[in-house]
């Protein structure tokens, strides 16, 4: 049995926002929704070998996936002992079902504007009239509010402002990724803020969101980094999972494409501008 601190199920590449600094490049509108039924036998096999402390369902925007309820049911069945949450931008909270919270799920809302932040708070009060909302601050900045919503002492929802926009490779156009440099992979790995987070895409396990996305979006990467981006460093359950876990603590080739160490250059003042575009046509049926 292998142990993961956090496992993120990446269930959609679609989003109704188009943030210029999206770390999974969803502003390119390049991907699709995923149905857990397509990989159910592999997911069951993973449940036999993976013990997970916390599971997150995310995207893209998870609430746009028309099979979100199926994802909730499958993960609840396969990992009943794990803490389970849905990460969302909070713009479609009406699609969340009351039964999910009764099954132990909670919400993590990363609001992308002050208006969305206020709407998420209002939704929580309307959904749980007897809830208790406490206010804190993000330790990474010290001056941005995080709201914790509790019902009978259980945390059912956390609401924060999504201020961590990363300085990813600049875009020449809406269809091309161009890196201005390669970074030292050892340095990037030592500063990695998702070192304890693994990602499941389909039924393949990846060590971080970048490695989960790059092989599938590598056709948009301008030379000379195409081959590096195209490397698939994930693992399927029938492959050498032991070797994959042995490599988990170490830097890998695609760490040189990562910009985690540079995040401090994006200041709170800059990100309060909320550099997003709303994409109205990317609905749940697209």
Provide structural commentary.
- Mean pLDDT is 85; it is low at 264-275 and 280-286.
- The longest helix is centred in the middle third of the chain and has 14 residues, at 114-127.
- This protein starts with a strand and ends in a 15-residue tail after the last helix.
- The protein has helices spanning 40-49, 68-78, 98-102, 114-127, 185-190, 209-217, 226-230, 241-247, 268-271; strands at residues 2-10, 50-58, 83-88, 105-111, 132-137, 145-151, 154-161, 171-173, 176-177, 197-201, 204-206, 235-236.
- The protein is 25% helix and 23% strand.
- The chain has a single domain, classed as Alpha-Beta Barrel (TIM Barrel), CATH 3.20.20.
- Strands 5-6-7-4-3-2-1-10-11-12 form a ten-stranded mixed sheet. Strands 8-9 form a two-stranded antiparallel sheet.
- It is α/β, with parallel strands linked by helices and 286 residues long.
- It is built from nine helices and twelve strands.
Please identify the top-level CATH class.
Answer: Alpha Beta
Shape: globular
The succession of helices and strands, N to C, reads: EHEHEHEHEEEEEHEEHHEHH
Task: Please identify, by name, the CATH architecture.
Answer: Alpha-Beta Barrel
Runs in which pLDDT lies below 50 for 5 or more consecutive residues are 264-275, 280-286
* Main pleated-sheet profile: 10 strands, mixed
